[in-house]
């Protein structure tokens, strides 16, 4: 379980600014906090701290470290190895530095495949450190595995520097045992609270007599000499301790308050990041829309230039120079102009006949005059309609000829020596002579996705020896 004090400590350290701030990048501080929290949860014996680290070039920086012990199992017995895990400035993108931290009664095994004489640890997991998948928990597990195969530290037993000056001539047959007896490497049970280290050349069930071989536990310290203290010094020390406790309490309250504020600021930072992403997205959309509007503006400006040019060219012209308002618009060809005139005359006569009929109903026009006017207008209307029908037929034929010239999928076909090879589908063939040949063309084309039917005159009457016409229906 993660202790709140440890979490508050990490939040306080990682949020500091100024000269005392730890030299980690802002985008990795949250990941560093997660790594340390997970490490202390899995291994409570490791405690996050800050300390000054001196590089080989003499530079000193304030870095985070995980100081404590890690468990390792050697010959069925669990021991604790003191280590220090330094989180360098480039962590977690680069691997941390791990040192074994031997006490005064411990020595580093020489040679060791993973620990150099200075205590620096080098294992494959550190050499193959990969960001962001690698983490401190897996690192400690790998350290425990490698140390269990070959322990890096050993504890040596030292002789008592103050032997008993008054040996008892009658020794007790049952003296008090050593408070830290050396365990049997072969048969000892595992204990997670052990803090000793196996020696390099231990045997299973025996130790050399009258000697001090290396032991997994340090020798007991000599008894302290009781001395008399000055009461004023005791009072002073107690007062200092009381003041320190009060300061610690005030600092804890202050830190708790600041931690609450920090959590609120972290939440606000997350909201601001979301808003930043939304604003960036909206800004990009507005930029795209602005580019589209600029393109449309260019098109409008081009069209405006065209219209202004047309106005400049036609500004001096007057409608009075035209014979009639209809002359303001020209037809594309003579047939179209003739069709327009015939249709206009036909519709005008139709309106005139309607007006005469209304005038006859109200008695404004005599009946005999009405009949004469209707007869004359009807004759004129007939000629206009007949002319319009001929013009329409001529236009249709001209359209077919133009299509035949543009594409082979449409056209008028020539009749030569009774051989006719059309590229279209003909429903029925009937050959005969003496009449004008007509055909009903039905064109189907998959590429053009079009179906057109025409009734077209393509031949003339012939004699018995001449070319026969063809009728297709």
What does this 3D model show about the protein?
It holds the Pfam family UEV. It is found in: Endosome. The chain is α+β, with helices and mostly antiparallel strands and 473 residues long. The protein has helices at 4-14, 29-42, 124-127, 136-149, 231-314, 334-362, 367-406; strands at 46-54, 60-74, 77-87, 97-100, 106-108, 153-155, 429-432, 438-445, 450-457, 469-472. The strands form four sheets. A four-stranded antiparallel sheet has the order 1-2-3-4. Strand 8 (438-445) and strand 9 form a beta hairpin. Helix 1 packs antiparallel against helix 2 (29-42) and helix 6 (334-362) runs antiparallel to helix 7 (367-406). The longest helix has 84 residues, at 231-314. The two termini are 96 Å apart. 14% of the residues are buried.
In short:
The protein is 41% helix and 15% strand. The chain has helices spanning 4-14, 29-42, 124-127, 136-149, 231-314, 334-362, 367-406, and strands at residues 46-54, 60-74, 77-87, 97-100, 106-108, 153-155, 429-432, 438-445, 450-457, 469-472.
Notable characteristics:
transport, Ubiquitin Conjugating Enzyme, 473 residues, disordered C terminus, single chain, 10 strands, SB_dom, 4-stranded antiparallel β-sheet, ESCRT-I_UEV_domain, 4 domains, alpha+beta
Q: What radius of gyration results from the CA coordinates?
A: 55 Å
- The CATH superfamily of the largest domain is identified as Ubiquitin Conjugating Enzyme
Distance between the termini: 96 Å
Mean pLDDT: 73
Name of the level-1 CATH class of the largest domain: Alpha Beta
**Quick one: how many beta strands?**
10
Classify the secondary structure makeup into a structural class: alpha+beta
General form: rod-shaped
Note the beta-strand portion: 5-15%
Number of domains: 4
User: What percent of residues adopt helix (DSSP H or I)?
Assistant: 40-55%
């Amino acid at each position: 379980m993660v202790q709140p004090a440890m979490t508050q400590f990490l939040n306080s350290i990682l949020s500091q600014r100024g000269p005392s701030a730890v030299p980690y990048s802002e985008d990795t501080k949250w990941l560093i906090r997660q790594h340390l929290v997970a490490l202390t949860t899995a291994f409570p014996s490791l405690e996050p701290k800050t300390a000054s680290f001196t590089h080989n070039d003499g530079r000193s920086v304030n870095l985070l470290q995980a100081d404590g012990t890690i468990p390792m199992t050697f010959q069925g017995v669990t021991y604790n190895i003191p280590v220090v895990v330094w989180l360098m400035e480039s962590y977690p993108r680069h691997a941390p530095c791990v040192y074994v931290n031997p006490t005064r009664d411990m020595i580093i095994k020489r040679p060791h495949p993973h620990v150099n004489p200075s205590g620096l640890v080098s294992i494959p997991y550190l050499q193959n450190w990969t960001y962001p998948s690698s983490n401190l928990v897996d690192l400690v597990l790998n350290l425990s595995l490698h140390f269990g195969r070959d322990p890096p530290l050993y504890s040596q037993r030292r002789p008592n520097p103050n032997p008993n000056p008054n040996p008892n001539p009658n020794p007790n047959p049952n003296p008090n045992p050593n408070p830290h007896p050396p365990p049997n490497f072969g048969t000892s049970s595992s204990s997670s609270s052990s803090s000793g280290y196996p020696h390099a050349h231990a045997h299973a069930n025996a130790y050399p007599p009258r000697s001090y071989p290396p032991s997994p536990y340090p020798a007991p310290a000599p008894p302290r000499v009781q001395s008399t203290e000055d009461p004023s010094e005791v009072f002073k020390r107690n007062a200092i301790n009381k003041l320190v406790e009060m300061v610690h309490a005030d600092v804890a309250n202050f830190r708790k308050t600041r931690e609450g504020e920090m959590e609120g600021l972290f939440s606000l930072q997350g909201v601001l990041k979301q808003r930043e992403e939304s604003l960036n997205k909206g800004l990009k959309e507005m930029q795209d829309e602005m580019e589209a509007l600029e393109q449309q503006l260019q098109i409008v400006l081009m069209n405006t230039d065209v219209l202004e040019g047309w106005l400049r060219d036609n500004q001096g012209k007057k409608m009075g120079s035209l014979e009639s308002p209809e002359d303001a618009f020209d037809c594309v060809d003579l047939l179209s102009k003739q069709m327009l005139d015939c249709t206009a005359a036909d519709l005008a006569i139709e309106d005139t006949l309607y007006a005469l009929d209304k005038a006859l109903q109200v008695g404004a026009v005599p009946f005999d005059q009405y009949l004469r006017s209707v007869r004359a207008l009807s004759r004129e209307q007939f000629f206009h309609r007949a002319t319009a029908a001929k013009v329409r037929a001529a236009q249709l034929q001209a359209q077919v000829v133009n299509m035949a010239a543009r594409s082979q999928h449409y056209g008028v076909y020539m009749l030569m020596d009774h051989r006719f090879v059309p590229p279209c589908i003909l429903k029925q063939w009937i050959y005969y002579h003496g009449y004008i040949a007509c055909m009903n063309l039905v064109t189907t084309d998959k590429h053009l996705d079009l179906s057109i039917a025409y009734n077209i005159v393509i031949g003339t009457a012939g004699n018995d020896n001449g070319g026969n016409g063809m009728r297709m229906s």
